[in-house]
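Predict structure. Chain length: 616.
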Amino acid sequence: QGVQDRYAPSGLRLNCRIGCTDMTDIQRITSVRFKRYKAFSDFSLALDRFNILVGPNNSGKSTILGAFRILAEAIRRARAKSPTIVQGPSGQTRGYQVGLSNIPVATENIFYNYDEDYPAAVSFRISNGDHLTLFFPVRGICNLICETSGRAITSPASFRQYFPIEIGFVPILGPVEHDEQLFQREAAREALLTHRASRNFRNIWHHYPDVFDEFRSLIQTTWPGMDIKEPEIDMTHEKPLLRMFCPEERMDREIFWAGFGFQVWCQMLTFIVMNKTASLFIIDEPDIYLHSDLQRQLITVLRALGPDILIATHSTEIISEADLNEVLVVTKKAHSAKRVADPTQLRTIFSTLGSNLNPTLTQLARSRRVVYVEGKDFQIISRFAAKLGFRSVATRSDFAVVPTEGFNPTRARTFTQGVEATLASKISVAVVFDRDYRSDAEVATELNDLRGFCAFAHIHQRKELENFLLVPEALNRAISQRIANQNKRMGKTTSFTEYIQTLLLSITDTMKHDVQAQFLKRQHPFAKSRNRALDDATITSQLLAAFDSTWKDLNTRLDIVPGREVLSRLNAHLQKTCGVTITPNLIIECMSDAEIPDEMKMVISKLNDFAKATVE
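Prediction complete.
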């Protein structure tokens, strides 16, 4: 178990293994239902791999996360004690009394509309089909009830067998102590999940150093120029103190002098590293601690983590980094949290939470570099970059990203001029645009114009960015993984038996005439302007021959079809036949390095060079 403490609080089992990514044997919490609990009369939430709760203030986000905190304490008790007879929803039963005094959750208003005549309950479904229920019969009393399909829970060992659940979360963060005394290991353990965590930061790493190397590596890659050393004991005072030095450009300084932002980031990464093998990892409003750059980096780091992720946030930066179906809208009036299904829903969310323009301008002023992309394309680019190990590109730490309305060099040029006038400084520009149905000659012309004001300009050889996701082998693995995950969570036996190449041929066959029409519409005028001696029929014949040659082979066909629409139709088919959908992030996760298109590797590498080049 490594440095795992036998009686460590559930939620911070210190048994993280460096490089551990196999989470197939970990039980998951698949859903939670609230009955007469706080703001919720009857409310449910279905959990997936990545879950971002959004909604206005007082919508119930913190209520949801608070219930998981109580569950974590209940699990800690059940792991150490045998059950007793307690009050349950259906009368006296075996269970556990849960102490609420040390949990940072307001428990005086547990009951819906403050009506204490009726009990409150929160039920958590586990992926093996069993349930854990927090039952509140009267004020100040919470009982954990275990419902299993097997034998009754009678001991800590049987509880661990049926409910191998780990819940990790980030406690309240704050500045580290100037002079932190060396405490005993037990004091450091007790501080881990309380408001005292920041005041015992050095003690945590002194007593639990097993995964320090991984923590240090994350610091080095997410905060350029910074490093961190293991705590050292300072015996020059009456009571021993702990010091922790952070080299920056070969100059050592104690972490207390490193700035609040860096201190908080170190604490955030500490809890991330120490919870890699948990079932669920929870963060409540990380945006109140982190600058927008670090918010984006946080999502990238969490995606590489083993547990399911549950975040409550108001940050448009975090929401923008997510796949649509990872965002859940929480409102008290609804009966369940609704996953975002349509991009237009984000406009309403953003109007409630505020614009993310100012962070973009702040990033521009600091880095003096900007990358223009179409819409939300950089989300996919950043995930390819993370997959390839280009962390600074993935987290856009050295440049700002500005979306354009489609293929829009004019907007990029105009915006650049405006920013340069505002900052009274030159900025370096990169552009990555879709090809659509432009010919090679038209692409060459556009690139020549773009290079007039860009340090790096690229137009994809494929129709659009989503076409880089149309890798049959990776799609097949993503589908199989998604179905296996659903089967494990929901106890189903669904399987995917179709041949992915045949399915892609079937989906794209129905698109042929539309794609052909768009191809001719775009390329004919440009071809005519470059060779006016040819008549229209000859040009059309040549273009049709080129199209047919491309279309007959699936690999080249997948370069020219509308990739976004193909994925949409594929997901519609999967939803109908298997009850699942796949996301760009999952597809990229399922790609081997050899399957990532060479063109994408080149784009990422060039963006990395762009980020490191000196801005004149």
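Summary: The longest helix spans residues 61-80.
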